[in-house]
Every structure is written in C-alpha cells, then in structure tokens.
Amino acid sequence: MVVNQMWGKLYMVVNQSGLRRDEVFVTTKVWNSDQGYHNTIQACEKSLRRLGLMYVDLYLIHWPVQGMGDETWKAMTKILQEDKAKAIGVSNYAIDDIEDLLRASNGVIVPAVDQVEFDPFLYRKELLQFCKENEIQLETYSPLTRAKRLAHGTVVKIAKKYGKSPAQILIRWGLQHNLVVIPKSTHPDRIMENSQVFDFQLQQDDVQSLDSLNENLQTVFLN
Ligand SMILES: NC(=O)c1ccc[n+]([C@@H]2O[C@H](COP(=O)([O-])OP(=O)(O)OC[C@H]3O[C@@H](n4cnc5c(N)ncnc54)[C@H](OP(=O)(O)O)[C@@H]3O)[C@@H](O)[C@H]2O)c1
Description:
This protein is of the alpha/beta class. The protein has a domain at 2-111: TIM Barrel (Alpha-Beta Barrel), CATH 3.20.20.100.
C-alpha cells in the first residue's frame, strides 16, 4: 500500500486499517519555498508532526531550485542519518540536476529515487538509462497521463488483447521498465483495478509499440 502525501494524523488511519506501520509506505516532499538547510530540517519535522509519524519511508526534494540544492541535500542527508526518513531522493530532477547534486555531495549519498512524470507518451529514455547507471530508482508520477491518453487507440487495442484496462496496460508498461509506479484514483474499484497488474506480462512487441508513442506529453508541469 502506498500513501503519498496524506495530510492529517496518518497513524490513526493506519491503526484503524489494522495495517502495521511497516506495511504502509509513506512519501512526502520538501516544498520549493522550504528549501535550504534549516528550512528543510524544519519542514521535515513539521511534516512528521502533521502526519503523526516518527519517520517517513521516503523524503524527496520536490523540485530542483537554483542555488539551493547543495544546502537542501545536506539537510536531507542529516534527516536520513537521524532516521527521520528511511530513504531520501529527488523529484522533477533532470540528468543535469542530478549530476550537479552528485558533484556537490561528492557522490557520498546518492538519491535513492527520482520521482518524475513518465509514461509511454513521455518516454524519457535517457533519464531512465542515467538512473539505472547510477542506481537511482525512477518513480513515475501521473503514470496514467492523468487520464488524458487512456482512450488512445494503441493502448485500447493492447488492453483488449490482454483482457485488461488501458490503465492497467500503462501501469504494466512502467513496471516492465523497472519503474516504481504511483497511479492515483479517488474510486476504490479503480484503486483495486490499478493494483491488479501482477498476473500478466506484456510481450516485447507490445512494450515496443507503447515505447513508440512518445510525444513529450507533460500533463503536470509545462516547462
Ligand atoms: N512529484 C510531483 O511533482 C508530482 C506531480 C504530480 C503528481 N504527483 C503524484 O503522482 C500520483 C498520481 O498522479 P496523478 O494523480 O497526477 O495522475 P494519474 O495517476 O496519472 O491519473 C489520475 C487520474 O486518472 C484517473 N484514473 C485512475 N485510475 C483509473 C482507472 N483505472 N481508469 C480510469 N481512470 C483512472 C483518476 O480519476 P478518478 O480519481 O476519478 O478515478 C484521475 O483523474 C499522485 O500520488 C500525486 O501526488 C507527483
């Protein structure tokens, strides 16, 4: 179960669900205006208080803010060392941004994760390769294109072939590219549907058909 950025006393939700803390993976991020050494430490503590948790599983820098990265990353490593986050990483970082971070920190603590928008319509092959070479796990947000391409002919055709939904095909494509995939839905039946992606495998030619759909579609942040 992945709970991403849930505000409020999360531990109550966990307790009521009957799940143990270690069965829930909690990610949150330091926001752009909270970057810098002291602000990042404070932002993390504030998040932990609001969540009612001792630690988060993954703490990310939301965005590469010019001139702030080094100090923010220093704070992130302190947060890691103090066990307030089990892992630290970045979000919306391009290759250049990660290279800057690695240079500044002498590659001592490499981000565990880069969370970026990534799907067949925004197939960022070079970033995927770079992360693989540097042992950074790529995590894809908005993996369902925020529903903007679920009716695309190729996706629908492949979905019919496997008896799956277009959403399941996009998630499965991400998994077969070794991505961590975090789809979101407000509907319990869709949340369930989106989790049922481990009982089939896309054939290589279907993966390649999906790979060929890249159109640099950005549904979240337009650069
Ligand atoms: N790091 C960042 O900067 C960043 C930026 C954006 C998002 N995120 C994170 O990424 C996660 C997901 O991204 P997202 O919500 O932007 O996009 P998404 O998961 O690609 O798409 C969500 C949309 O798809 C619909 N949907 C979900 N499952 C479906 C299904 N099985 N069939 C049909 N439609 C379905 C949802 O509608 P219903 O709710 O009506 O089902 C919603 O409109 C979130 O946890 C978010 O916090 C991170």
